[in-house]
Amino acid sequence: MRDSIPLYVDAGILTLKIGVVGIVLALLTGLVCAIVQQLRIPVLRQIFGFYIELSRNTPLIVQLVFLYYGLPKAGLTLSSEMCAMVGLAFLGGSYMAEAYRSGFESIEPIQADSARALGMKPVQVMGKVLLPQAFAVAVPALTANVIFLIKEVSVVSVIALPDLVFVAKDQIGSDYNTQESLLLLVSAYLVILLPISLVARALERRVRFATYGD
Description:
Shape: flat
Number of helices: 8
Radius of gyration: 20 Å
Distance between the termini: 47 Å
Mean pLDDT: 88
Number of strands: 0
């Protein structure tokens, strides 16, 4: 088991790297989608709405296969790491957009009307009135999506990336030591996900206290 630990450490670092970049891109993509839908710009709203439905209704493994094997047919070749990050952002962006949307819909319309009546510009209404409140409401859903996306990285082995699942399968195939390989696999995911889960809960409590005071 000791000889295999460096392989799992390297795979864990790769998993975190893909997860962090993909999640940051997903948060930005989701925020843009939610703002565009909130502003009700007809054409853009339809385009982003189509993206959300396409993303949510296709598995990540299918999106990865399309990016890795399909795009080169169209003359665009991405590295396997880049495909994994883009795929994670593509999938996660739609879930993040829905989380932000629930936050925006929790705000009474009169708040935006009052802000405009006070002379605030649309950008100021969005940035100073709507977005902070929407983010506070959306935090629990956003943090749940972050943990979900980290776990989704487990399918990137389909495009030949040596993530944790790839290493575990390789070790089982070469050493036939299934129990130790699975134990290391579960332990590695716990090491990655448990701190993230604890930070997410602390963030939720902090935002809730700042918003509601309890």
